Amino acid sequence: MSQVFHLSHIDLDGYGCQYLTDKYFNKINSYNANYGPEVTSRIKEIIYDIKKSKLFYPNQDILILITDLNLTPKESSWLDKEAKELGVNLQLLDHHATGQTSADRYSWYHLDSSKSATLITYNWLQNQYEFDIENKLLDIVKTINAIDIWLSDDKFFELGKVCLGMISGSREINKIVFPNNDREYKLFLIDSIKFVISEKDSNILLDDKLHSIKKEFFIDKKNDTKDNLVASYITDLLGKDKDRFKIFYKNYKGVLGYNIGSSSIIGNKFLIDNPDYDFYMDISSRGSFSLRSNDKLDVSLMAQEIGNGGGHPNASGGKIDGFKNSFIYEKVKDIVVEHIQSKSK
User: Fold this and answer.
1) Which structural domains are found in the chain, ordered by start?
2) Any idea of the CA torsion for 246, 234, 164, 25, to the nearest 10 degrees?
3) H or E, element range at 247
4) Contact criterion met (CB below 8 Å) for 280 and 267
5) pLDDT surpasses 90 at 261
6) Is the pTM of this model over 0.90?
7) Cα–Cα distance for residue pair 141/122, rounded to 1 Å
8) Does the first or last residue of the chain, that is N or C, have fewer Cβ atoms within 10 Å of its Cβ?
9) Who contacts 296 (Cβ-Cβ below 8 Å, separation ≥6)?
10) What is the pLDDT of residues 18-63, one digit of tens each?
11) What are phi and psi of 151, to 5 degrees?
């Protein structure tokens, strides 16, 4: 079976495609992107990852699969060239009419505006691999299809509306910092639909249960408030990969988050669980940042020095002027590290 590199959109339909491929392919690397420059960024990331993979497995069969995203003619041309040079297969499954120019030119570009990308992906898996799933999971496909192409008379439409909000409102895990965990969370939520889909008023039932379903994903050893459960989960992720997030301010050691949020809860918990660290920093896409400490560093002075900010010794904030947003965490970290070094000499 092929090693699959699957790029999909960040809405219900996009994750619906990955919900299906995750159930079929054993060897799959998944990625997600919103429209615009993030698509190009993720495709380049996939090409880079394939080149790394080929160093160890030069003869492996590779498929680049793109779902629920349309490519511009320029992106399609570049990807087609890269795929040929690498000797890998391409398949794009989409339903957005704006991709018609590329669809007319490339045989690997499948466009069908009459269906959701999830249904297109299901049909493709059936035709290519004789993939089949139980009725409840097929009903999930029908639910996503009903809401994504707005079949308001479909029996699954109202349930689809709840599912649409369920995914768009699930921001507990930052998709740029923790992409695999965020995707796992979204697929867990989609899978939970099967427990209500056969019930009367399934849309209301899912809406009522949604808070508990989300908590279920984050519960480890014992129940708690959702905020505390999420804080523990994020803290564990930060702690397991501390070197990736590690930064320094003078002789003080800290970690850098990006659009993680809830700095008071997550920052304080991380510092308690990791006493060898002196501060926690979380920066937003606009350059504003939050700082937390646990009596080891006066972060109000740090905030003043690096971002014209201030606050309290253990809780402060500021802003990095001219900060450039990125879809890649490592680039964000490089910008912040360089800024801190330039301001704290």
Assistant:
1) 3-218 (3.90.1640), 242-343 (3.10.310)
2) 80
3) strand 246-249
4) yes
5) no
6) yes
7) 8
8) C
9) 252, 271, 278, 279
10) 999 999 999 999 999 999 899 999 999 999 999 999 999 888 999 9
11) -90, 85
